[in-house]
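re: ur question from yesterday

yeah so i grabbed the chain u mentioned. its 578 aa long if i counted rite. heres the sequnce exactly as i have it in my notes:
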Amino acid sequence: MNNTSKKLNGSEILIQCLKEQGVDTIFGYPGGAILNVYDALYAHQEIRHILTAHEQGASHAADGYARSTGRVGVCFATSGPGATNLTTGVATAYMDSSPVVFITCNVNSDLIGRDSFQEVDIAGVTLPVTKCSYIVSNVEKLADTIREAFVIARSGRPGPVLIDIQKNATAAECEYSPMTPAEFLEHPDYRIARLFQTHHPSVSYPAIDLADIDRLAEMIDRSEKPLLICGGGVVRSGASEEFRTLAHRIDSPVAITVMGGGAFGGYDPLKTGMIGMHGSQASNMACDSCDLLLAVGCRFSDRVTLNPAGFAKKARIAHIDIDPSEINKNVKTDLHIIGDAKEVLKLLLSRLKRDRKNDEWKKYVFSFRRETEYDPSEGKLTPSEILSAAAEILPQDTMVTTDVGQHQMWAIQHFRFDYPGQLTTSGGFGTMGFGLGAAIGVQAGNPDKTVLHVTGDGSFRMNCNELATEQYYKMPIITLLFNNSTLGMVRQWQHLIYKEHYSQTTLDRGPDFTKLAEAYGLHGRRVTDEATLRKVLTEAVNSRADGLGWVIDCRIDIDEMVRPMVGGGSYISDFMLA
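ran it thru and got these C-alpha cells back, copy pasting raw so excuse formatting
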C-alpha cells in the first residue's frame, strides 16, 4: 500500500478516488450543494466532464457509457431536484444490470431534516432501485465509501450504486492515502467490499456446484430438441465466446432476449431471433416444442414468458444465473446453477461427453423462420425499408441505441448485432427518452465508432434537449426517427384490445424535427421514400468528420404495427398477428 498521505478536503478526496478507479469521463450537471466538488474538478482537466442538458440525460449517458465499454459509468448531480431527476436513470440501470456510480451532494448536516432548500433523502428515494445507497456525513469515511461503491457496482450481477455526500463533508479536511483497487480488496478492514467481489483471486465465494454441472451435461446429452436462450447475463459476464461454443457443440437453436442482443452472432445460422411477446415465430415455436430449455443470464421476464404456467411446457428447464434471487422467481426450473455465466459455461464445456447433431429438430424450428413483410403506402416508408437501408449503408460494427416502443422492436428484429455492447436499449424498465442520452454515452466511450440512435416521435420529444449536448461535444450521432404521429405501441394495443379507442395517443402536433435539429446546429432531413433515405444515410455516414449529428425524420404510416405479437398471458406459440 502507498503510505504517502496528505491532508485534502472531501471534494479533492472524491476526485482522487475516482482517479484511483481509472475514471476518465463523468456525466453531470452542477448546482449549489455540489459546487465544492465541481471546484475541485476544475483543477483536473485530465478527467473529461460532459455537461448534459438535464440530469436524466446525464444518467442515461453514464449508463450507455457503462454498457458499451464494460467500465463503471459515473454521474454527478446536485441536491433536491437535481438528484430526483436521476431517479429514472437509476432505475433503468438497475433493471438492466448496468454498473453506474451516481454521486449526489446534499445540504449541510445541520440542515438535514429541516425541509431545507433543495433537501431530499435521495438515498431513501433510490433504495429500491440500487444495489447499495450511501449517505456520507463524515469526510473520514468518504474515500473508503467511494472505493467500496465501485466494487459493488461492477461485482456479481452489476448494477447502480448511489452515494449522497452532505456538503460539509465535501469541505472538511482529513488525511488521504492513495490506494489501488487491488490494495483495497486485499486490506483486512474492508470486509463488505470483499463479500461483494467475485472475480478477485484473494476472495473466496461459494463455489459452483460441480455435481449440478454434471447433471446439466447429462440433460444435454439426453436431449433431442434443445433450445438455448441467450440473456443479458451473457453480455455482462463476457461469456459470448463460451456461449457460442456451447451452441455449436450441442447444435442447438438459439433464441435471444432483448438484453441478450449482440451476445450471439447476428449472422450465426443457429440464431432464431428474439423470443417472447414480439419474438420471431421460430423462437416461440422452438420454445413451445423443445424438450430441454437452457436459459443463460435470463430473468424470464413477463415479456419473455407471457404465461409462465404454459412456458416451455414440454421441456425440462435449466437456468444459469449469477443472481440467486432470479432462480425460480418467474419460472420453476428442473435444474439451476448459480454462478458467473462465463465460469459455468467453461465448466460445462469441459464435461460434455460428445458433440451433437440435431438436423431434424433444426429443420423443424427453422421452417418457421421468415422475414416480416410490411405493405408500402404512398408517401410513407415501411419499417423494413428504413432498417434495411440503415443495415446496408452503415458500417456493420455500428453501435445502436434505441428508445422504447415500436421502433425498438423493429430495430431488434431487423438488425443483426454481432458483438456485446453493440446494442444499448432499455429492456427491463422500458424508459422512453433513454436513447439519445445513451447514444451520447456510447459515443463518448467509443469515439471511433458510428453511433445510430433509433427512436420514435413520442420518445424523442421526451429528451430531445440533449441535442445540445450532442452538438457541443461534436458527436456525429445519427438519429433515425420513426415518425408516425402517434404513440405507436400504445396505439397498437388500443387497436387490438381496446376496440380502436385511440385515447390520448395521437401526436398531431409539433415540433418540426428537421427545424429542431437545425436550431441546435445539426443536420435535419425529412424523408418519405427509400431512395431519398439511402442518399441521406450515405451523406450522414460520409460526413462524420464534421462532428455534426443528424436527425433523419422518416415518415411511416400511423397504423403500422410490430409483427408478430403475442398478448400478455397468452401461450408463447399463440400469435395475435400473423
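noticed a couple things. The radius of gyration is 24 Å. also The mean pLDDT is 92.
anyway ttyl
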